[in-house]
Design a protein that fits this description.
Belongs to the 4-hydroxybenzoyl-CoA thioesterase family. InterPro entries: 4-hydroxybenzoyl-CoA_TE, HotDog_dom_sf, YbgC/YbaW. By secondary structure, the chain is an alpha+beta fold. It has one domain: Roll (Thiol Ester Dehydrase, Chain A), CATH 3.10.129. The chain is 26% helix and 35% strand. The chain is built from 4 helices and 7 strands, in the order E-H-H-E-E-E-E-E-E-H-H. The longest helix is centred in the first third of the chain and has 17 residues. The model has no long low-confidence stretch (mean pLDDT 95).
């Protein structure tokens, strides 16, 4: 499963050079990730209500071309790996008008208890969403 999230670059996201600041890509990854989880069957807010959180443990981003103010972008999000302890999402950011690949990246998240922030077995804690995310892995 690959989800697509639409983004329009806001002026505040650009820097003095007129291009999107590198820090914004992490925010766009989050937009893609939360859309993906919701489309897989459970909004992230419901996961939190059930006592599970997925804090970020690593983030990578490769930049190929810049994005500019008012560019319309598509964040393509997929799950590349899931275990009982963690989940890894992959991202591709493309400009909509010419399908130019602007950036790729990944984020890794652990499954933790919202009360103790200690690791939990995601497969046991949220079996329905774990199954949905597992079956969504791009083969």
């Amino acid at each position: 499963m690959v989800t697509e999230s639409k983004i329009t670059v806001r002026y505040a996201e650009t820097d003095k050079m007129g291009i999107v600041h590198h820090s914004v890509y992490a925010v766009w990854f989050e937009v893609g990730r939360t859309d993906f989880i919701r489309q897989a069957g459970m909004p992230y807010s419901v996961m939190e209500q059930k006592g599970i959180m997925t804090p970020l443990s690593s983030l990578t981003c490769q930049f190929y071309l810049p994005a500019y103010y008012e560019d319309e972008l598509i964040v393509k999000t997929s799950v590349s790996k899931i275990t009982a302890a963690r989940i890894i999402f992959s991202y591709k950011i493309k400009r909509q008008k010419d399908q130019a690949l602007l950036a790729t990246g990944s984020t890794s998240h652990g499954f933790v208890s919202a009360k103790t922030f200690r690791p939990v077995n995601g497969k046991k804690a949220l079996p329905e969403i774990y199954q949905a995310l597992s079956s969504a892995i791009e083969k």
